[in-house]
Amino acid sequence: MAPKPPTPARVLTLPPVSGRAEYLVVLLHGVGASAESFLPIALALSPDVPHAEVVVLDGLHLFDGATTGRQWFSLQGITEQERPARVRQAGTEVSAWIDGALAERDLGPERLVVVGFSQGAIVAQWLALHRQPAPMAVVSLSGRLAEDGPAAADTTSVPVLLVHGARDAVIPARLSEEAARGLEARGARVRLRVLPTLAHGVDGEVLEEVRWFLRDVLPHP
After folding, report:
1. For residues 195 and 164, is the Cβ–Cβ distance under 8 A?
2. Which of 5, 104, 147, 194 is deepest in the core (most CB within 10 A)?
3. Which value, to the nearest 10 degrees, does the dihedral of the CA atoms of residues 98, 33, 4, 42 take?
């Protein structure tokens, strides 16, 4: 029997504006943050996805770099060689949680949108490539692609939005440019936006990019 995936400490939910949820939007925060700290992003986007239930979950593990906060995977002693395996483990855990959340809502496994920031964006990109069936759409904000296999190992046609700040000193914008090439090589339909004045964060311009993307790619029952 497969081990039970970790359980998030908190799950914050915004019900669909229109009534019954037609799909599920899952938001993944950055390392050391929490569901509560990422809730304003969910509140800002919820009106633009009126047929979706928007869910913000805590990172599945306690942040091991401070006394508060959550994480999807540890950064302690991480190397370029080790990162893909840690991301794979985190993505597998998050995907298992999503399976349960979709089943609870009687939604098909493809009725999923993932929006991630920073470490959450790294996990979101992993889900774009490896979750089967693929999500309806994936949004990566200030993220990177962490893969250790050949380009043809997994293919997908999922639409992916990559948004990054040119002034990001935490995860350089070139890593989203590299991610765009890697995702496109695997079949993803990528939209890349590098914002010239943005550092490592989410501002109104980022949210507007996300809104336009979601309006373009999501069905409107």
Report:
1. yes
2. 147
3. -20
Angle, helices 204-217 vs 35-45, to 10°: value is: 60
What is the rounded end-to-end Cα distance, in angstroms, of the chain?
39
160 touches 130 (CB < 8 A): no
* Cβ count within 10 A of residue 48: 19
Cα dihedral sign, 77-81-83-86: negative
**CA-based Rg of the chain, rounded to a whole angstrom?**
16
Q: Which of 6-15, 35-44, 56-65, 172-181 has the lowest mean pLDDT?
A: 6-15
Report the distance separating Cα 163 and Cα 176, nearest Å: 8
Q: Which residue type is seen at 85?
A: A
The pLDDT tens digits for 140-199 are 999 999 987 665 556 789 999 999 999 999 999 999 999 999 999 999 999 999 999 999
Helix segments in the chain, DSSP class H: 35-45, 83-104, 119-130, 174-185, 204-217
Number of other residues whose CB lies within 10 A of the CB of residue 143: 28
Tokens found for residue 125? 């990109």
Structure tokens at 26: 């899952």
pLDDT for the residue 153: 59
pLDDT tens-place string over residues 88-145: 999 999 999 999 999 999 999 999 999 999 999 999 999 999 999 999 999 999 999 9
Cβ pair 128, 143 in contact under 8 A: no
